[in-house]
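Thread amino acids onto this structure.
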C-alpha cells in the first residue's frame, strides 16, 4: 500500500472516529448515571484528541496536507471539548443537569413542568407553572 492510499484511509478513519463522539446518547436516569456518562464522554474526547493528533503528525511526516489538517483540526476540537467537559463537572453544573433531566418538580406546593423552547436552532429548557 503506498503512502497516498494509506493517508486517505487514515483520513477516513479519523473522520469516522470523530463522528462517533458526536452521536447522541441515551438520557441519564439518575445523578450517578449522569456523572458516569459525563466522565465517559470526557475520556472519549481525550482519546479522540490523541487519535487526531497522531493522525495529524502522521500526515505531517508523510507530507499529506489533508490528513495533517484533518487530524490536527480534529485533535484541537477534541481538546476543546475535553476541556469543556472537564469544567462542566462542577457541583453546580451537576445539580442543574439533574434538575433539567426531570420532567417536573414541586416547590412550595406549586408544581412546575419542564418545557422546551427552540431559540436560533438550539434546544432550551425552562420550567413553567402547571395549571
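Threaded sequence (131 positions):
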Amino acid at each position: 500500500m503506498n503512502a497516498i492510499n494509506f493517508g486517505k484511509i487514515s483520513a477516513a478513519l479519523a473522520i469516522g472516529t470523530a463522528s462517533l463522539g458526536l452521536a447522541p446518547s441515551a438520557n441519564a436516569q439518575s445523578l450517578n448515571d449522569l456523572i458516569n456518562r459525563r466522565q465517559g464522554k470526557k475520556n472519549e474526547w481525550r482519546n479522540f484528541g490523541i487519535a487526531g493528533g497522531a493522525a495529524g503528525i502522521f500526515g505531517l511526516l508523510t507530507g499529506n496536507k489533508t490528513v495533517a489538517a484533518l487530524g490536527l483540526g480534529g485533535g484541537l476540537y477534541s481538546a476543546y471539548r475535553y476541556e469543556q467537559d472537564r469544567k462542566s463537572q462542577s457541583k453546580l453544573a451537576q445539580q442543574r443537569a439533574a434538575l433539567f433531566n426531570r420532567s417536573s418538580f414541586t416547590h412550595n406546593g406549586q408544581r412546575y413542568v419542564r418545557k422546551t423552547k427552540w431559540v436560533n436552532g438550539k434546544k432550551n429548557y425552562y420550567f413553567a407553572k402547571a395549571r
